[in-house]
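so the lab meeting is tmrw and i was supposed to have these ready like two days ago... anyway. pasting both below. for each one the top line is the aa sequence and the line under it is the structure tokens. i havent really looked at them closely yet so no promises
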Amino acid sequence: MNRSFNMNHIIFYFYFTFLSILPLFGQTNNSLKSDRILEEYEQFKKYRLVDISKALEHANITYNLSIEIGDSSYINKSARAIGWLLNSKGEYDSAFYYLEKSIAVATALNDQNQLKYVLNDAGLNRLNLSKYDEALYFFNASLKVRDELNDFSSKSLAYNNIGLVYYNLEDFVEAIVFFEKGLSIAEEFQDVSTQSMNLVNIGLSYHLLKDYEKALSYFEKTITTCEEDCPVDVRIQAVGGMGLIHLDQENFEEAYKELESVINLSLENDVFRFLPSNYHYLALIDFYRKDYDKSLSFLEISNDYASKLQDVEWRKNNFALYSRIYAEQENYQVAYEYQLKLAEAKDSLLNADVIKNISDIHVNIQQDKDANIIEGKDLEITERIQQIYLLAGTVLLALVLVLFVYKNNRLRKRINDKLDNLVKERTKNLHNSNAALIDSRTELDNFIYKTSHDIQGPLTSLRGICEVGLLDVKDETGRLYLTKLGDTAKQLIEIISRLQRVNNINSTSLHHTLIDFELLIQDVLTKENEHSQDFSTIKTNVKVDPDLSFTSDEYLIVVILNNLISNAFKFIDKEKPTNTVDILVSASNNILRIEVRDNGIGIHVTDTHELFRMFSRFTDLNRTGGIGLYLVKSAVDKLSGSVFVSKSDEGQTIFVVKLPFQS
């Protein structure tokens, strides 16, 4: 992405450079206006957290007076102040205009301290417009300036905002990592404002991970912190977050009350950027209450604010809810039209170019880290060489001075040559590793993007078309074809969903909790009962050791149980008088054993390892896509376990998973 300034920026740069040297040519200092500038800027700081409109009025006066007397330092500060306030009001285009001015002036004055803040504000501006690659660029530029200034205390804000990029990309686990880094630094330096930002963002992340207890605790910490001093938008997010927890728990009255108070607080303080989301949630509550007219009314308000704020993310969410409402009202044509708008909004929100830009920035960050590692190794090698020289000098001083000098020079050359070759070799290995990392990351990004956008979107549209077609087509043959086509699209969407689960298994960190196998198995059997027509004809036997106490990652255990048990039900032999499925869970010698047996059609392959490869299928009786057992193998490998398949003497198919206990 080209970040060079255009001609206007160049002119702006030289203009303010000229202003900074005007005093050398005898410019008269207007002391009255200078005093007024100081007064107005102090007023801006006084109101910036409590009354955005008043703060903006004082910031504009400061800016205009600074232009009049050519005070480039306060032009820089006031331009950034205006941009920051307009960001809070949701006027992002106007805000970015002033932020670019501030960046140009700070660069001209080499004001690194001001530059670190305005680059951060520019990143927030781009983030609010869902331009995630540009946001990440500005945040990392701000972080680099802070590193150059050795300004450790203010890195908490930079980490918080990098976390916001991952939050908006829905990588909530990675987002929490950055938020917690920022929180740790803010607490160390008692930075209440930044501390509150990190607290509320951690709470919002845990809310979307559905860990409501943790989310609520962080929202409460935020509100407690805000009693001292923090931005009004942080208070809005904390109270709104508590409302969302009530919404998820279907406590609609409390949720409605919290969201209405947040909307009033936003309107009172001219903070408009949260209005699209909060009006959307009010619409969602009325949707759940089946008050569709009221829900559509709130959606209209949310969409108006989202359009004014150029908020693509909430326009997308509104389109999805519009589609659900009209589908509930059996107005499938309008519902389908909003599905098309939703697909278009998704494509505009995160396309391949944006993904590549984000990936490139990741690679640049990693290369910077590698360069620092090499620099550190070089320093360590230099120190060790010096120690060798000192030791050699002490020993060889007892020898003839001429011999010492001669041999020392030869030794130095050999060691330097060897070390140079070693550094070159390790540098080459690092570059090769980085190249492999870039290729792997790019392949993974392309895979996920193409499956989720190039395939899933059209398949969803195809299902919608089939449903609309079934409303109009009366011919039985045509209806049969449309039904089969819709079912096929549904199966393909399920395959894509499973592929995404593969990526989740490989990329998600492990979270160990106590596993209730009886409850998890019962959940799987309940789902099979809902989807399998033959469930009632199959004899199921479940046996779990009563004293079993095993901790592991619940998500991965569910993946293993769901796919093994589902396979047993899918491949029953309908010609047999009795079909059985046995599920046994036991433990011995710190090894957990999960065993699933069935007397179905069996497996007729010589190499059972082929079963666990992606897209491997050994029967046409069930169109499974060949991913289920690959998911099992991936989850087992993640848990450092093993899985194998065999046949009993009675012809039963036996899948066995062994997992180690965590110490």
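ok protien two:
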Amino acid sequence: MATDNDASRPWYVQDEPPASSEAPTTAPTKRSTRKAHAWRPVVAVPPLPCEDDATFEWRRLMPAWIVSGAIHVLVLLLFLFVTVQTSSASSGTELGVIETKIDDDVRDKNLINDEIGDDPELPLNYNVDRIEEVSVPGPANVEESVGIPKAPDTPPINVTPPPGFSQGTGGGIDNPALLGSGNLIGMPGGYAGGKLVPGGFGGRSGSTREKMLREGGGNMRSEAAVAAGLKWLALHQADDGHWGMHDFHQHGRCNCNGVGHNSDVASTGLALLPFLGAGETQRGAAANSLYAKNVDRGLRYLMAKQGSDGKLGDGYSHAIAAIALCEAYGMTADPSLRRSAQSAINACVAWQGANGGFRYTPKSDGDTSVSGWHIQALKSGHMAGLNVPVKTWRGINKYLDLVGGGNYGEVYGYTSPVGSPSMTAVGLLCRQYTTWGPRALGMQRGIEELQKRPPGGKDIYYYYYATQVVHNVGGPAWEQWNPKMRDSLVERQDMGTSLNRPHQKGSWSPNGDALDHSLGRLGVTSLSLLTLEVYYRHLPLYRKDLGTDKEEALRNGM
């Protein structure tokens, strides 16, 4: 029997009932009073397995952990899905690292490419290829000249026109708002006059020069000779910008021989022409910038010597200097040159004699030699977009008729129709600049006359004119003429091998030349260079793909 003070028993163990069925006679104890409910038998409950508190707690919380983990995984997956979809929908660009290579060494780089312009994809140089086979749709008319007469179409330009493009006068800018909208039609700043017309200056640089040199029959030896000759001229320029046929050796501080006539204006103009013929101007850039300062000083000297009436000395001096001024203006449209160039042209117009020719003094009856230089000056002015009256050209044709001889005017004399080789070459070039085309009977017979005296001698004055005439006509005559002329000039160039006069390298000796005492070493060198530049110095006179109607041009001023 358990006792009341046995506190070790569990609370659920009841006291045993009395032995009889009678109620107990004594009052229940305190514990039994607490358990005063109906009596029932005691059920024996086996004890729970023995386990520590930590294990019990882990088993109790495990279901909650499983539910919480599943919820967190689900929320994380939803978050990632929404974030990726939002980024993909809102961003259309892809971030990345761009590696830029910077070339710090620009000392040898040409940062101003005058051959490319604003649009590198648009060819700037004039292409002289024939395109008539595909240029106009429909049936071909073989009697029609190539191109459309008076058409305003020209090759596109991708650079801003030079200052002074309004109305093609080459002066100041009348409306700055129009800058950049110019076209090659209407002589914009001298462009139309000096770039695309037959005989123009557009072939003197860039890819056009290379192409015309190759197609015309020049080679690397002839170009090397030109480069050496230009270097020699540059070394013999005076400090004030002029060249002298009689004192060039003093300015070169050397012992070069072969002095000529004393005429600084004529000498300066004659020395400038080969630089201009090679594309060198006072505004030189890129490949044509080596002699920009030499050209600039020479032009400034000529302008300083020009009188208020536009004259630049006697008949020869004025005409040769006028050619240089007009070519420099036509190639650059430099506003600072326009007034001097136009004044020189005006003086040529006023110089013309009553018989239509030009001579040493104004208004005198002309001779073919002086007239040849004046006609070249007027042609250069016309190509540069300057004003040359129609009346002047008519007078020139009148003079050429007076001194032209033979059955068809194929030979020319000094002041009469009695022909000579040099004057025939001069007269034929003047005919090409005015009225005659390559098929004119007088021109064909004239070429035959020139072929009777082929290259090989020493008469640079004759060869300078004759080479231009034959080159303009082209064909078999040029194929025969060119190699002899080119190679003979290259072979005669001074290579500076003389121990006593190495400074003469690049020049041509006047010894034995027909005009040795007049031209001297400087004059012979200048004319030799111009002859070797014939391939690109002027655009072809008779190429139909220039899009110019020659007869129309003649009626409008030529």
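from a quick look at the 2nd one: The beta strands are 404-405, 411-412. The first strand starts at residue 404 and ends at 405. will dig more after coffe
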